[in-house]
Amino acid sequence: MKKALAISCLMLIGSLLYTYLFWHQGMGLNTLLFSIFAIGASWWRWPECRQRIPVLLAMAATLLTAIMTAWHHSVLASTAHVISFLTMIGLLQKEEIRFLAFGFALGLASLLEAPIAIFRSIQESIPGKSRWKNALRWAQLSLVPAGLGLVFATIYYNASPKFARMLDFLWEYLALSFLRELDFFQAFAFIRGLLVTGALLGASYFAAYLFRLEQFFPENLKRIRRKNWLIRPGILSLKQEHRAGIITFSLLNILLFLLNIGDLRYVWVAYGQASPQELSQYVHEGTYLLLLAIVLAIGAVLWYFRGNINFYPRNEGLPVLVYAWLAQNAMLALSVGLRNWQYVAHYGLAYKRLGVFWFLLLALFGLYSMYLKVRYRKGLGYLMRLNGLACFASLVLACTVNWDIAITRYNIRWPAAEGIDTRFLLHEVSDKNLYLLYENRKRLLAKGNLGATELNTALESKRSSFGTRVCGQGWPSWNYADTRNKKRVHQSCNDTK
Fold this sequence. Notes:
By secondary structure, this protein is an all-alpha fold. It is built from 20 helices and no strands.
């Protein structure tokens, strides 16, 4: 009962803290402060989860992405933080969830389930015997002292000017003034905070269902032995399946070999000779075809190595063909990466071109995980756990870089063959790069595609939008990126006067 009461109090404290930090504020320093509270509260609430490595990794990812949100203030960092936070909520349940995707889904479900968890926590904190007597006892412990304290505080406030000034100071400067302007939006922020803390500290009913669902995806394959009259048909079936696999992967290897030979001739050997139109077609169409090829590759390998074919005694040739096909898919991925690099050299760095590199790295890791699956007779659960961890880790690591600044610096320092795409840097990249545009105005005029008048007008418009966005933000929304922007843009404008 005491722990249930403490959990209810933590939910209320967390909701008030969330309301104060995020009401009329963007994500910034408040994200880091609330994450520290959430991790500390969950560390106390779920002691059985302290030794689980996935939970510790999710907590570390939540803290790291919160720091990056306060530092870079990028959309990627904010998105990674929300995903990490929800995954942490899902993994904190008593049932040990293995798959990060299931943990994220459970975190989302816990948000919807939060009202039930809050009601259950309040119900468990109230003793079952003699409801009226307990209600009077709790009222005596809470309402009576609060009422007497309010009466005497009013008397002392009117009797002593020094006491009145002290209370005014607490009211104005110690985060109590927001109570005077309580409105619908503030109440909505409080409800959001209550849902978040309820999901974080409450037990989910869906955890048991997801835990049982995970058991259908084993990490290690086991041989299914048939008895008596089923033995012979089973062997014949495996023999036919083995022959079909040999034919299938032989044909696929031949087709992919011809494609890779063409890439070696026209992409690797004839590097830099493709026209811009050919590069655009290679990158955009090639990426989608690669995605389809890898999905089909994974599906084909999973189908042929789904069961007893892994334990077939004459199965030497099929794995070799699969390894060759996976290696050729990796070669195809590297060829698309080289095409994308040529595209960057011709047109400059952009978000989608970075996304192609990110996808290719995940594709290469996925192909390597398929090799491990065949080599060590692993199941679908192994692939789900390993590739889910790779996607999550890559997302968290990616948010440690301010890509808006990286793209702007690269395109200015190493102009593309077509010149600097100034319109892209002004209108497509966020205002985090504003100070770099002001500091490199002469270079943009010399090698960009805008004239002086159009460039100055666009810069002032972007600066005005930036000022409107940051105007009125309090200290909870503080972030280093906006602070640096204001300081260096102001300094750059003063230097040009």
